[in-house]
Design a protein that fits this description.
By secondary structure, this protein is of the alpha+beta class. 47% of the residues lie in helices and 20% in strands.
Length: 295
């Protein structure tokens, strides 16, 4: 993923006084380690120390790098990366010849895009699939081209970096969930939809936020259950309304009110959806169930 210009020598005689170049992209900073300028991964400690409000994503292309974070050692091998919180002291040590690329991102921006980000810190994650190929290639191209960009353009690309890296991390970590884990998430989502059916603002974004997952992963969970989020919401609301219409204790409640209580904003929409689902109108269903109870 990272070309030979990013290679670093782990030779103990390499001078350490040369500053590591930092590529600025607005709120994002890219750090490349090059053998030509004798930069060593140990110098990342000093950079991290002055960036307490940031997370560091360290990507290893070859060799290995050891990082001590919160008194715990994290070993990164070729094709792995990890997130680190710069608010805590970090110590780096490279082994042999290695290639590395660091991305400093404001902690608040990562936390806004990645759920349960604290559980990902200092955990080696394997780069997998096209998301990381896209992200890595994008980062390398920016490093070589940013000097030709005006500041506003560089800032815009920095925002893209955050999005691309977040997508890649999310894809790698969520794909590790076992099917049983995804089934459990589906059950939680289903229970949440039933409990909040009356909320007219209920939608994929709100469900995903409540579950602590991304909208994209929410759709994946429902797809594996042979469902779609919107269809599941619609059917759930119709089933609740169908039971309420058959409940003799709610016989005095108007059909319009029942429709609104289960999240339908339009009585006409509810009437059409009900008949399409059950082949009978809501009025007819209520009348038939009432007659059966009276018989």
């Amino acid at each position: 993923m990272i070309n030979s210009s990013l290679r670093v020598s782990g030779h103990p005689l390499a001078p350490k006084s040369s500053k590591v170049p930092v590529t600025l992209l607005g709120n994002v900073e890219l750090v490349t380690l090059t053998v030509e300028r004798a930069h060593t991964v140990e110098q990342l400690s000093g950079l991290a120390y002055t960036r307490a409000d940031r997370f560091l994503l360290l990507l290893v292309e070859s060799g290995s790098i050891s990082v001590i974070h919160r008194n715990r050692r994290c070993e990164l091998e070729k094709g792995q990366y990890a997130l680190f919180d710069c608010a805590h002291s970090l110590a780096f040590e490279g082994s042999g010849d290695y290639c590395a690329l660091g991305v400093f991102v404001p902690a608040s921006l990562f936390q806004a895009r990645l759920r349960h980000v604290q559980s990902l810190l200092a955990q080696p994650i394997n780069c997998s699939g096209s998301p990381w190929r896209i992200a890595a290639n994008h980062l390398k191209l920016l490093v070589s081209e940013v000097r030709h960009m005006p500041v506003p353009m560089a800032y815009g690309y920095g925002t893209q970096v955050i999005e691309l890296v977040s997508i890649a991390v999310e894809a790698d970590t969520q794909n590790t969930l076992a099917p049983s884990g995804r089934n459990a998430i589906f059950r939680r989502c289903a229970a949440y939809v039933k409990a909040n059916a009356a909320d007219t603002a209920l939608g994929p974004a709100k469900i995903a936020e409540a579950m602590g997952i991304s909208v994209r992963y929410l759709h994946k969970v429902f797809h594996e259950a042979d469902e779609t989020v919107c269809e599941f919401m619609r059917v759930t609301r119709l089933e609740i309304a169908r039971k309420d219409l058959a409940d003799p204790l709610k016989a005095s409640v108007q059909i319009r009110e029942i429709a609104y209580r289960v999240g339908f904003r339009s009585q006409a929409h509810f009437a059409a959806a009900f008949k399409h689902r059950y082949g009978i109108s809501a009025t007819e269903w209520r009348r038939e169930t009432a007659q059966q109870l009276a018989a």
